[in-house]
Amino acid sequence: DRRLKIAPSILSADFSDFGREIRAIEDQGADWVHVDVMDGHFVPNLTFGPPAVRAFRPHVRTFMDVHLMIAPVDPYIEAYAEAGADLITAHVEAGPHPHRTLQAIKATGKRAGLALNPGTPAEVAEPLLDLCDLICVMTVNPGFGGQKFIHPCITKVERLRAMIGDRPIHIEIDGGVDPQTAPLVVAAGADVLVAGSAVFKGGTVDAADVYGRNMQAI
Ligand code: DX5
Ligand code: ZN
């Protein structure tokens, strides 16, 4: 299903009431709920452990997209799968064995994603594509919401779309997506758009016309 999907990141939600925030973004048309897991080691910020993700699960009626920015990642895959993730994304930079990591995600029965930092070339994904349901192209350095979109990453999206060919693999964009940058990445071949600060403003949801739904036609 290559219809454009919007995946708001609850990293920018009101942390005092995730149930309400998740309901609000889904009511406003979110396709997936993006959960940013950070460990204070792979990235300089800390967020959600498996018990937090388990607490989000009953509120998510759509699809829970769990982005692991943690290293090591392998020892925690099962815990996040059991917590209720529908898709688990790990970073190719998180360890020396990304192939093994993707196999471990697949072994849980969940869908598998591979994330690439802005400094990582598209080509590293090539030998791993058969294990991937999604490639997450980071368009900011991971760790924080509200950063500026890194434009040269758009070329990487084009390369990945060509490399993927007709395989059923999503290309997700994460970081600095807003109404200005969204059309650029969709034109380059992305079909899942994560957005934190563009959707949640000042602690309240403002998904009014998130990126212009007319892009669904692309
Ligand atoms: C960054 C996270 C993103 C982030 C996006 O490390 O992976 O999901 O929340 O936030 P914005 O849309 O504000 O760049
Ligand atoms: Zn993310």
From TrEMBL:
Q: Which residues form the active site?
A: 36, 174
Q: In which pathway does it act?
A: Carbohydrate degradation
Query: What InterPro entries does the record tag this protein with?
Result: Aldolase_TIM, Ribul_P_3_epim, Ribul_P_3_epim-like, RibuloseP-bd_barrel
Q: What cofactors does the UniProt entry give for this protein?
A: Mn(2+); Zn(2+); Co(2+); a divalent metal cation
The catalytic activity, as recorded, is: D-ribulose 5-phosphate = D-xylulose 5-phosphate
Is Hydrolase among the key words of this record? no
UniProt: a divalent metal cation binding residues: 34, 36, 67, 174
Q: What does this protein do?
A: Catalyzes the reversible epimerization of D-ribulose 5-phosphate to D-xylulose 5-phosphate.
Q: Which family does it belong to?
A: Belongs to the ribulose-phosphate 3-epimerase family.
- State what protein this is by name: Ribulose-phosphate 3-epimerase
Species of the source: Paracoccus albicereus
